[in-house]
């Protein structure tokens, strides 16, 4: 018998890792050689042992491959930091190690009490990839609930599992038959299930189960590590953000403290609203407007346009209601208030976003501005009282101690020996409420002080003593400017100039009579002087409250028919009468002045006679007509 028919041949087959079918060759050759039965039995026993050794070596090689793959997997997982990357790597390696058609992973949802599909590898069904499994339902639900591995060679026909329509439909659409599921465990807690599945009825052997269990154990640790790393990163990011916030807050608190100290110093050294505005912009940056209660500009720092009046009113109202600054992009508004009184607003256009502490700076600046405005008002009111008392003493009768009055005036910067005009403002400027009356007096005090004069309230009038000699111009300026402040027409009568304190009382009386005359002439809302009204003004200034009614009746009775005739016919009878009386009753000179023929003047005067009566040229009637014509002209002055 050759050596090839001996047991040694099986060792050679093992040595070259021959296929299992080749181990039948020595037996076939021995039978063909006619070896006796005992030799054949010996060879069969040797073949059987060789095949067992071969199977053992094969299992060890496979195990070595699996362990090597498992080691590579663990190494790969250790290098991953993102949780999604970890999960995809686990599922992909499970599919490769087991040679499965599909691998996938479900994770437990503690809030909903079920398990859901998290990652798949090799899947083609969208429905399968969206599956959610109730605890205890399907193979995966049972693994998730029990924490033990489960394997089936044919899931659809396996009655051990609780089948549901949704799960079976997803598995069927994916075409899965054999499924292996093992738990992902952290200590005693199951966090999900790792699966390997085939689309044919191929059972998973014990070694494959053990391999997937090992992979799941490492995967659970990797998942937890990635989760902890993600949480750590999130915590670090939150800490970094908190640190940034703390730094910003600390910086803003320091800015607020510095701004507080600076504004306190401004108040103590007598700074103004302009200084507060400059301090705010230096601390917060940007540009700022300070406005009074009427929306007029008090201070401007930087390049910033004034908002619309309606926008200011709305924003200030919101700031007062909320008790803090409000944003109307890109501007911030802080109401300047004292109790329930609105004093104005600060409008800030910052370069950067404002944090809470920055808003507090703006609000504190508004408070300081309110204090400064109140202080300025108090000082102005005190000075106004002093000035008012001086003017009241100057226009009183009899005048006492002119030297003392001159001394008081010098302390206020007023030279009583310089020319002054006195302007009396009528009751039409003063509403019934005390606040409106005080407002007019406050305006008059400021107006007069700015021009080196005085103002006071006396006998229901507001009186201004202003340097200068143009009484009429001063009256018109006061009427115009005060009308804008009050929002209603203001009448102002003036007289002067006066020289020396002794003449001021008489000048005031003339200004007061001029004011009365303007009312009698129906010229409310205008300004004029006694010189501009002439003797008629002095006359009407004495007629009292019935003056305007008396003037109207007098005009109607004296020249009313002529005025009405001109208004209806468009004629010039009034103008002709004025020219006729103006040239001393000369028809020729009147015609020359009117640029008409003498006959035209004659015809017009004949028409006047028809309207007024034949005796209109009688001396007493002619005087009344001339006076009426002068009154008529004064009631409607030019310009």
TrEMBL record:
SMART domains: GAF. Residues 82-233 form the GAF domain. It comes from the Bacteria. InterPro entries: CdaR-like_regulators, CdaR_GGDEF, GAF, GAF-like_dom_sf, PucR_C-HTH_dom, PucR_C-HTH_sf. Belongs to the CdaR family. This is Sugar diacid utilization regulator. It comes from Micromonospora taraxaci. The lineage of its organism: Bacteria, Bacillati, Actinomycetota, Actinomycetes, Micromonosporales.
């Amino acid at each position: 018998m050759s050596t090839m028919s001996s047991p040694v041949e099986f060792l050679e087959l093992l040595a070259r890792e021959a296929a299992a079918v080749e181990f039948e060759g020595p037996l076939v050759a021995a039978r063909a050689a006619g070896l006796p039965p005992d030799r054949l039995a010996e060879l069969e026993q040797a073949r059987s042992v060789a095949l067992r050794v071969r199977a053992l070596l094969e299992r060890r090689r496979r195990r070595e491959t699996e362990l090597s793959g498992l080691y590579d997997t663990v190494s790969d997982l250790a290098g991953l930091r993102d949780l999604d990357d970890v999960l995809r790597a686990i599922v992909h390696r499970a599919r490769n190690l087991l040679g499965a058609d599909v691998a996938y992973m479900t994770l437990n949802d503690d809030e909903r009490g079920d398990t859901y599909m998290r990652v798949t590898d090799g899947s083609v069904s969208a429905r399968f990839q969206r599956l959610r499994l109730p605890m205890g339902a399907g193979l995966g639900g049972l693994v998730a609930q029990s924490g033990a591995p489960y394997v089936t060679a044919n899931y659809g026909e396996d009655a051990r599992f609780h089948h549901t329509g949704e799960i079976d439909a997803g598995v069927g659409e994916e075409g899965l038959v054999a499924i292996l599921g093992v738990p992902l465990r952290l200590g005693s807690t199951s966090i999900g299930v790792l699966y390997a599945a085939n689309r044919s009825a191929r059972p998973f052997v014990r070694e494959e189960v053990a391999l997937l269990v090992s992979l799941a154990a490492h995967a659970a640790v990797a998942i937890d590590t990635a989760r902890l790393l993600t949480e750590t990163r999130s915590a670090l990011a939150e800490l970094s953000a908190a640190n940034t916030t703390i730094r910003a807050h600390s910086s803003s608190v320091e800015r607020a403290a510095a701004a507080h100290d600076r504004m306190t110093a401004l108040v103590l050294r007598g700074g103004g609203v302009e200084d507060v505005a400059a301090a705010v912009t230096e601390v917060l940056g940007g540009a700022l407007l300070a406005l009074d209660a009427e929306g007029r500009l008090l201070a401007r720092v930087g390049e910033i346009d004034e908002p619309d009046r309606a926008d200011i009113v709305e924003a200030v109202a919101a700031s007062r209601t909320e008790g803090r600054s409000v944003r109307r992009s890109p501007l911030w508004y802080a109401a300047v208030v004292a109790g329930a009184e609105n004093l104005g607003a600060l409008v800030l256009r910052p370069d950067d976003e404002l944090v809470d502490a920055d808003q507090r700076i703006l609000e504190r600046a508004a408070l300081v501005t309110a204090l400064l405005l109140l202080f300025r008002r108090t000082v102005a009111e005190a000075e106004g009282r002093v000035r008012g008392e001086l003017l009241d003493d100057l226009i009183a009768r009899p005048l006492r101690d002119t030297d003392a009055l001159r001394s008081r005036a010098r302390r206020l910067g007023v030279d009583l020996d310089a020319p002054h005009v006195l302007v009396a403002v009528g009751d039409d400027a003063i509403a019934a409420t005390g606040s409106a009356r005080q407002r007019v007096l406050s305006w008059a005090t400021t107006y007069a002080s700015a021009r080196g004069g005085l103002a006071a309230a006396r006998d229901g009038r507001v009186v201004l003593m202003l340097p200068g000699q143009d009484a009429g111009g001063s009256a018109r300026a006061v009427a115009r400017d005060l009308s804008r402040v009050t929002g209603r027409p203001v009448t102002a009568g003036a007289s002067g100039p006066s020289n020396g304190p002794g003449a001021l009382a008489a000048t005031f009386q003339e200004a007061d009579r001029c004011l009365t005359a303007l009312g009698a002439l129906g010229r409310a809302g205008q300004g004029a002087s006694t010189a501009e009204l002439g003797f008629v003004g002095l006359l009407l200034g004495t007629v009292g409250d019935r003056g305007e009614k008396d003037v109207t009746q007098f005009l109607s009775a004296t020249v009313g028919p002529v005025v009405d005739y001109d208004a209806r016919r468009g004629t010039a009878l009034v103008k002709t009468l004025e020219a006729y009386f103006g040239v001393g009753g000369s028809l020729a000179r009147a015609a020359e002045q009117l640029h008409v023929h003498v006959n035209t003047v004659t015809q017009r005067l004949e028409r006047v006679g028809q309207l007024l009566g034949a005796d209109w040229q009688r001396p007493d009637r002619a005087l009344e007509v001339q006076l009426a014509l002068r009154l008529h002209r004064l009631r409607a002055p030019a310009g």
